[in-house]
Automatic annotation (TrEMBL):
This is Site-specific integrase. InterPro entries: Arm-DNA-bind_5, DNA_brk_join_enz, Integrase-like_cat_sf, Integrase_catalytic, Integrase_recombinase_N, SAM-like_dom, Tyrosine_recombinase_XerCD. GO terms for molecular function: DNA binding. Keywords: DNA recombination, DNA-binding. It comes from Butyricimonas virosa. Belongs to the 'phage' integrase family. CDD domains: INTN1_C_like. Residues 219-395 form the Tyr recombinase domain. The keyword DNA-binding applies. The lineage of its organism: Bacteria, Pseudomonadati, Bacteroidota, Bacteroidia, Bacteroidales.
Length: 404
C-alpha cells in the first residue's frame, strides 16, 4: 500500500525573537524520514493556531500566510503524486529537491528511448543507416508494448528498469512475440545501448544487464555440397525469373558478397589488379572495411551476361529485392530437388565452405576474403566444416599408411 507524505506547518518556538515572533516551517514526514524548511513568514504565539495549522485573525498578513501555506501544500502534493508514479526510492528528499528546484523529475525509460532514437535519426546517412534506425525503432515499439502489457502503463521510471524488467522483456519476446533466440539477442543488445547510456548519465545506479546472459543459440551452418551446387548451376529453368535469381545468387556464391554489397557493386569497383586479373575493390557496408576479392571465371560470366552497357557508375547486377530473391528461392530449391532452406545469405556461406575451404584455401585467406575482423571469427563459424576436412584428410592418410 502506498503511504503519502505527511505535510504539516508549525511555529518554531525555540527560534522566537525578542519581539515574540517565531518563524513558520513546513514539515515533510514519511516513515522514518523527515525534512523541514522555512516558508518565509514569522508570527507571534497568539496569532498562530497549531491544531488548525493556520494564522489567526483577519489581518492582511494572516491571509497572506494562510494563502502561501495552501499554495506550498498544493505544489508539494502535485510533486509527490508524480514521484509516486515514478517510484521514487527516497520520496522525502526527492520531494524537497524538486520543490526548491535543485533537480528535475527522474527520467522515464520510453522517453529516454525516444530521445536516443531521435538523436540517432538526425545522423541518418552520416553515422547510421536507415535500416539500422528502423530496427532500433522496431525495438522501441516492442518495449513500449511490453510495458503496456506487463506494467499497464505507457512508460516506467528509469529506476524500475532492473534485472526483473530485462528478464521479463526477454520472456515476453520469446513467449508472446514468438521471436527466435538469435533475434531476441539482437533486440536486447539495442535495449542495452539505452540502459548503458542511462548509467553513464546517472539516471540509473546499477546495470540491469549485469547478471543477464544472452539466450543460447544453436546456429546451423547451411551450405551446398559440390554435387548440390553443380545441380543448381546446370538446371535449365523454364521461367526466366527463376534463372535470373539463380544467377544473382551464384554471383555471391563465387564472390562472397552479402546482398547489399552485391547489389551496390558498380562497374568502377571492378578493376584490373597487380596480377593482371579482375578484382572487386569496394567498401564492405557492414564494417566499412575495404573489400578485395579476385573474380573467379563463374562470377565474370555472370557480370558479362547482365552487362547492359552504361558508364562506370552503372550497377553490375540488375536490381531485385532481397525479399523477392528469398521468396523465389523457395521455388528454386523445390524444382531443383535440394532439401535445404536457402536464402541469399547462404551464398556467402557456400563461398566460404564449398568454394574455398573444400578446395584447400587456407583459413587466413578465407577470413580475409569474408572480411571478418579476425580469424577467430571465421574459425568459430566454420569449425565444423574444418573438422570434416580434417577428418577426410586423416582418412586419406590412413589409407596411405596402411601398407597391409
Amino acid at each position: 500500500m502506498i503511504t503519502r507524505v505527511n505535510i504539516s506547518f508549525f511555529r518554531y518556538h525555540s527560534k522566537e525573537t525578542e519581539t515574540g515572533e517565531a518563524p513558520l516551517y513546513c514539515r515533510l514526514w514519511h516513515e522514518n524520514k523527515r525534512k523541514i524548511f522555512s516558508i518565509g513568514f514569522k508570527v507571534t504565539r497568539n496569532k498562530w493556531n497549531q491544531n488548525k495549522q493556520m494564522a489567526t485573525g483577519k489581518s492582511e498578513m494572516a491571509q497572506r500566510i494562510n494563502t502561501q501555506m495552501e499554495v506550498i501544500k498544493n505544489k508539494l502534493v502535485e510533486i509527490e503524486t508524480r514521484l509516486i508514479i515514478e517510484g521514487s526510492e527516497d520520496i522525502v528528499e526527492d520531494l524537497y529537491a524538486l520543490y526548491i528546484g535543485k533537480t528535475t523529475v527522474s527520467r522515464s525509460f520510453i522517453t529516454l528511448f525516444e530521445e536516443r532514437y531521435m538523436a540517432a535519426k538526425k545522423m541518418e546517412g552520416i553515422k547510421f543507416k536507415k535500416s539500422t534506425l528502423d530496427k532500433f525503432k522496431d525495438v522501441l515499439e516492442l518495449v513500449r508494448a511490453y510495458i503496456k502489457e506487463s506494467y499497464h502503463a505507457a512508460d516506467i521510471p528509469m529506476n524500475k528498469v532492473n534485472f526483473k524488467f530485462i528478464s521479463g522483456l526477454e520472456d515476453y519476446l520469446l513467449s508472446v512475440r514468438r521471436q527466435k533466440p538469435v533475434t531476441i539477442n539482437k533486440n536486447m543488445q539495442r535495449v542495452k545501448q539505452v540502459t548503458t547510456y542511462a548509467m553513464r548519465c546517472n539516471y540509473i545506479k546499477m546495470d540491469p544487464f549485469i547478471d543477464h546472459s544472452p539466450l543460447k543459440v544453436e546456429k546451423e551452418l547451411i551450405f551446398l555440397t559440390p554435387e548440390e551446387l553443380h545441380k543448381l548451376e546446370n538446371y535449365q529453368f523454364a521461367q526466366e525469373r527463376l534463372a535470373k535469381v539463380r544467377d544473382l545468387y551464384l554471383f555471391s556464391v563465387y564472390t562472397g558478397l552479402a546482398y547489399h554489397e552485391a547489389f551496390a557493386l558498380q562497374k568502377k569497383h571492378v578493376i584490373m589488379a597487380f596480377d593482371k586479373k579482375l578484382w572487386i575493390e569496394m567498401k564492405r557496408e557492414k564494417t566499412g572495411k575495404a573489400i578485395s576479392v579476385p573474380l573467379l571465371p563463374q562470377a565474370i560470366q555472370i557480370i558479362k551476361k547482365y552487362d547492359n552497357g552504361g558508364d562506370r557508375e552503372a550497377h553490375v547486377l540488375p536490381a531485385i529485392s532481397n525479399q523477392k530473391i528469398n521468396s523465389y528461392f523457395k521455388e528454386i530449391v523445390e524444382i531443383v530437388g535440394i532439401n535445404k532452406k536457402l536464402t541469399h545469405h547462404t551464398a556467402r556461406k557456400i563461398f566460404a565452405t564449398t568454394i574455398l575451404l573444400y578446395n584447400d584455401v587456407p583459413m587466413e585467406v578465407v577470413s580475409k576474403l569474408l572480411g571478418h575482423s579476425s580469424m577467430a571469427v571465421t574459425q568459430k563459424h566454420y569449425a565444423k566444416v574444418v573438422n570434416k576436412k580434417v577428418s577426410a584428410c586423416i582418412s586419406n592418410l590412413e589409407r596411405k599408411l596402411n601398407y597391409g
